[in-house]
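Quick note —
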Amino acid sequence: MLKMFKKFWSNQKGISLVEIVLFITLSSIIGGVTMHVISNQVSAYSFITNTQNNLSDARSALTLISNELLHLDEGAILDATDTSIDFVDYNSNTTDFHTASNNGNTALMRGDKVLLAAVESFTLTYYDQNNNAIANPSTNVSDIRKIQISFTTKALGNEGTLALTTTLTPRHFIYEDYQ
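Predicted structure written out below.
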């Protein structure tokens, strides 16, 4: 077989136009498929990286809010609505968690500091000692025993959203003289 192939090529004086066109066509097809695969891989990597960064920022904000509310003293909540909570923190400073407009985005704030720059929604749900949702928390602040925090973030690059939710019971609301 090899002898026949050598004999065939030894008689050829050059490459025909058909062979050149065939080579260019096959090379183009292989190159196109390869570029499509590489493009998909770069897009997937970008999506995963953006989602991880967004999740990391969202988890940090949720952890900060949870830790702060977890250590509230009984009677420390001054006002509570579905979208904000005003309270006295562990340093006896009055502060709040709320949303505000920030450079065209809705930001999750602690007082005047941005916790999370791009939030689509932020909801607080309050429960009494029997695990019933409190319909009007601002008039029943003393009944609050459990707080559910929910927010949805905008993903970087507009590639989707992340929804995070946690429910917590401030320690001083269930234990007397908790240290």
